[in-house]
Amino acid sequence: MVHPPAVAAVTKAVVPAAGLGTRFLPATKATPKEMLPVVDKPAIQYVVEEAVAAGLTDVLLVTGRNKNSLENHFDRNWELEAALEAKGDDDRLARVRETVVVADMHYTRQGDPRGLGHAVLCAARHVGREPFAVLLGDDLIDARDPLLSTMLAVRERHGGSVVALMQVPSDQISLYGCAAVEDGAGGDPDAVRITDLVEKPAPDEAPSDLAVIGRYVLDPGVFDVLRETPPGRGGEIQLTDALRRMAREGSHGPVHGVVFRGRRYDTGDRLDYLKTVVRLACDREDLGPDLRAWLRGFVTSEAFEAGRE
Ligand code: G1P
């Protein structure tokens, strides 16, 4: 007799993409920030590709008013494909088509921007009673450094929910959710047990230097908790607050953390975004050599010293 697996497999990813992107105005006046190019791909495509690489096949984008370009990006563009085909431009044609076959894409809207917890709650109907992943678009995880697949394996071993953590300098912890952890998740070398979480604590109130980075594998019980979660920091319904309750009460299984030590790129504000573009472009075979050579010259130039050019 075949027994069902003790823990349901994760197939769905939820990507909140309804933010107003005010840090990037005016670029984001009519374009979602998730569509801003990181080298030559929109940020959202990296995130969707990461989900697919970890074996997730169904991606729900929780969007806001400016959703059209997001949907169009993951859809066919027959006119463009025909034009590239006519020109015999096979490379670019392949790059355009890559964006369509990535995953089974779905969209829902978050009418009022009431916070990350509320965005996740908007996915409840689509997700149903299955565990699911949440990926935040401001954090890009280098495709060479697996994180989500490790988190999915931890969920398979322990059930409950899994949160990605990263050590940050103490003066930066107030930008993130922060976790109190204890070692020894049943001897699992990949996981720590989360005992408490605080959203954006002051440095002297932070329980550790472990910041929540934007990857979660969540038990569907989180929806029940989110429905009862009052607005928290910034007047918004915080995912961190729901997870805090789950970690303390253990009502929907344990909450574990996976401490990520790989390469993470921040695209959340303009300076971090620029650094990310430069770092990723330097790594590229087609652009890297020329860009690195130019950068070397540029940083020693008078224009650089004078802060001009
Ligand atoms: C959100 C979460 C925070 C987490 C961060 C990761 O904050 O609320 O807990 O540490 O993402 O990027 P936001 O950056 O959206 O303010």
Give your account of this protein's structure.
- There is one protein chain.
- With 309 residues, the protein is an alpha/beta fold.
- The chain contains twelve helices and 13 strands.
- It is globular and about 60 Å long.
- Mean pLDDT is 90; it is low at 1-5.
- It folds into two domains: 12-267, Alpha-Beta Complex (Spore Coat Polysaccharide Biosynthesis Protein SpsA, Chain A), CATH 3.90.550; 269-309.
- Strand 2 (37-38) and strand 3 form a beta hairpin.
- The strands form three sheets. A nine-stranded mixed beta sheet has the order 5-4-1-6-11-8-12-10-9.
- Helix 3 packs antiparallel against helix 4 and helix 10 packs across helix 11 (288-299).
What key attributes describe this structure?
2 domains; single chain; binds 1-O-phosphono-alpha-D-glucopyranose; 309 residues; 9-stranded mixed beta sheet; 34% helix; two-stranded antiparallel ribbon; disordered N terminus; Spore Coat Polysaccharide Biosynthesis Protein SpsA, Chain A
Distance between the termini: 71 Å
Task: Please tell me the CATH architecture of the largest domain by its name.
Answer: Alpha-Beta Complex
**Number of helices, counting only DSSP H or I runs of 4 residues or more:** 12
* Proportion of residues in extended strands: 15-25%
The biggest beta sheet reads:
9 strands, mixed
Question: Order of strands side by side in the largest beta sheet?
Answer: 5-4-1-6-11-8-12-10-9
User: What is the global morphology?
Assistant: globular
- The CATH fourth-level homologous superfamily of the largest domain: Spore Coat Polysaccharide Biosynthesis Protein SpsA, Chain A
Helix content: 25-40%
- What is the CATH C level class of the largest domain, in words? Alpha Beta
Bound small-molecule species: 1-O-phosphono-alpha-D-glucopyranose
> Low-confidence stretches at least 5 residues in length (pLDDT < 50)?
1-5
Oligomeric state of this protein: single chain
Structural class: alpha/beta
Count of discrete domains: 2
